[in-house]
């Protein structure tokens, strides 16, 4: 293992910054320091914690352009998307600054006149987070804000591709007055830091956003010390277009969900399932719109689709396209690339594939790239069967103006997040998370603070 992480700009392959890797000893010291801060931080009253979070959000907003530029440099996403992500990130801080003041307990009628029963909530203890490269700011605050609001100290390990955004966010938290031992970051490879986190008796909760295989390992390793876990894992979102859908609207929303962050999100539509009577109209429009999206360096103001994060991600996308084409898919747009392996940049032009069938890899595995595979259905039952035939259950979308079709699809789709005529259902105020192998727990909304709290019950006798 080297001593530094080399952060490169995926748009050009050029060096952005070298970042020090923390030694095992340093990470253990950070964990102990975080643990030792728990008693004091948990006693800071909720209104003060709320005030500190609000100051953090304000300082991040004051540096919005700076953070957005760092994000585009290390992640590659278009600057407009990075600016949007700073707002998305602070919306979690703002939401949980409010929720800090709404951590309620309750009293329960006792079964005897001589007793009183009180149920209260208390913070769980030190929380460790492992965050992904695709949303370096929002996935960090989605975890840090509820933890801090609940009274838990927080330590984060950002993705090796994108540590700089997190490091700056933590500095701003300190500037806001959140103690340096209460929010910390450490840097290093996921497997190494993950092992140190999961084997530490001081950490009471692991929260992770990333792939399902890594999530499974973290769950297994956390069992040793019976840690709480929140896991936001892979997705393979279906997007169903019913016969009666408003096709222009459905195309517009499909573009939004499919090509956001160059298709590198867990909630991107990954399987587009269109009624056979409207598939031609839908596919032609989607291909036409997709081929007009501007691909390039995220720092150029016209860019709509940035680069793929790295060669491994690129190879997976290309393999899925090739497999689909080899098995009979028709290319309606894209299947073009701009690549320089030596310099280290990889662009995939928005690609639309028709005649996609269930034996193709792209229908079985998450793509994490700007590829829209289209398949067809005749009956709603068939659409649901295709949609649910995956171990994943994060997000699903459908387009219909018929309320019976809509409620049928809502009731039968096994997914945690459903967008009905809505390609952008995310937000700080909603419970984000998946069913099946897409994860455990929810982040955001009133649900998102619960996983950072223990329930304690007090029975008082002898009244
Ligand atoms: C993700 O891709 O993991 C998060 C996307 C979102 O919050 O909308």
Written overview of the protein:
Helix 3 (46-62) packs antiparallel against helix 6 and helix 4 runs antiparallel to helix 7 (163-175). Helix 9 (212-223) links the parallel strand 8 (203-209) and strand 9. This protein is α/β, with parallel strands linked by helices and 463 residues long. It has 14 helices and 22 strands. The model has no long low-confidence stretch (mean pLDDT 98). It has 2 domains: 4-233 and 438-460, Aldehyde Dehydrogenase, Chain A, domain 1 (3-Layer(aba) Sandwich), CATH 3.40.605.10; 237-427, Aldehyde Dehydrogenase, Chain A, domain 2 (3-Layer(aba) Sandwich), CATH 3.40.309. The protein starts with a strand and ends with a strand. A 7-stranded mixed sheet has the order 12-15-16-11-10-18-19, with helices on both faces. Strands 7-6-5-8-9-21 form a 6-stranded mixed sheet, with helices on both faces. A 3-stranded antiparallel sheet has the order 3-4-22, with no helix packed on it. Succinic acid binds at residues 134-135, 209, 232, 265-267, 426, 432.
Provide a brief overview of the structure.
The protein is α/β, with parallel strands linked by helices and 463 residues long. Helices cover 38% and strands 22% of the residues. The protein has helices at residues 24-36, 38-43, 46-62, 64-75, 79-99, 138-150, 163-175, 190-199, 212-223, 247-259, 279-290, 311-326, 380-388, 403-412, and strands at residues 4-8, 15-20, 106-108, 116-123, 126-130, 154-157, 183-185, 203-209, 228-232, 237-241, 269-275, 330-333, 337-340, 345-348, 351-354, 371-377, 392-393, 395-399, 417-420, 435-436, 439-440, 453-460.
């Amino acid at each position: 293992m080297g001593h530094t992480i080399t952060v490169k700009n995926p748009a050009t392959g050029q060096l952005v910054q070298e970042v020090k890797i923390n030694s095992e000893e340093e990470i253990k010291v950070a964990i102990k320091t975080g643990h030792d801060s728990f008693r004091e931080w948990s006693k800071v009253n909720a209104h003060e914690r709320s005030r500190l979070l609000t100051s953090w959000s304000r300082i991040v907003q004051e540096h919005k352009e700076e953070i957005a530029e760092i994000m585009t440099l290390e992640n590659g996403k278009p600057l407009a998307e990075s600016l949007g992500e700073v707002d998305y990130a602070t919306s979690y801080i703002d939401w949980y600054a409010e929720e800090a003041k709404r951590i309620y307990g309750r009293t329960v009628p006792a079964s005897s006149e001589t007793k009183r029963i009180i149920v209260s909530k208390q913070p769980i203890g030190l929380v460790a987070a492992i965050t992904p490269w695709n949303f370096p700011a929002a996935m960090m605050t989605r975890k840090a804000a509820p933890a801090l609001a609940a009274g838990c100290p927080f330590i984060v390990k950002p993705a090796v591709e994108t540590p700089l955004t997190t490091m700056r966010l933590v500095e701003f938290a300190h500037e806001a007055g959140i103690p340096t031992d209460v929010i910390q970051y450490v840097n290093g490879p996921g497997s190494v830091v993950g092992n140190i986190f999961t084997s530490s008796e001081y950490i009471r909760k692991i929260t992770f956003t990333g792939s399902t295989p890594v999530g499974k390992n973290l769950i297994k390793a956390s069992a040793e010390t019976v840690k709480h876990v929140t896991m936001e894992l892979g997705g393979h979102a279906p997007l169903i277009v019913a016969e009666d859908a408003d096709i222009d609207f459905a195309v517009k929303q499909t573009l939004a969900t499919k090509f956001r962050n160059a298709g590198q999100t867990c909630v991107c539509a990954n399987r587009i399932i269109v009624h056979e009577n409207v598939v031609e109209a839908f596919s032609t429009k989607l291909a036409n719109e997709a081929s007009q999206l501007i691909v390039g360096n995220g720092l150029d103001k016209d860019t709509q689709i940035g680069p793929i994060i790295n060669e491994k991600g690129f190879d997976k996308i290309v393999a899925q396209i090739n497999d689909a084409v080899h098995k009979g898919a028709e290319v309606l747009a894209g299947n073009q690339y701009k690549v320089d392996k030596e310099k280290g940049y990889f662009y995939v032009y928005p690609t639309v594939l028709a005649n996609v069938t269930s034996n193709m890899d792209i229908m079985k595995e998450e793509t994490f790239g700007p590829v829209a595979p289209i398949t067809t259905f005749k009956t709603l039952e068939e659409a649901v069967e295709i949609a649910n035939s995956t171990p994943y259950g994060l997000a699903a979308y459908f387009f219909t103006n018929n309320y019976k079709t809509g409620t049928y699809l809502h009731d039968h789709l096994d997914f945690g997040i459903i967008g009905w005529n809505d390609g952008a259902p995310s937000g700080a105020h909603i419970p984000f998370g998946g069913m099946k192998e897409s994860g455990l727990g929810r982040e955001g909304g009133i649900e998102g603070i619960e996983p950072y709290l223990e329930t304690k019950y007090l029975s008082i006798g002898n009244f």
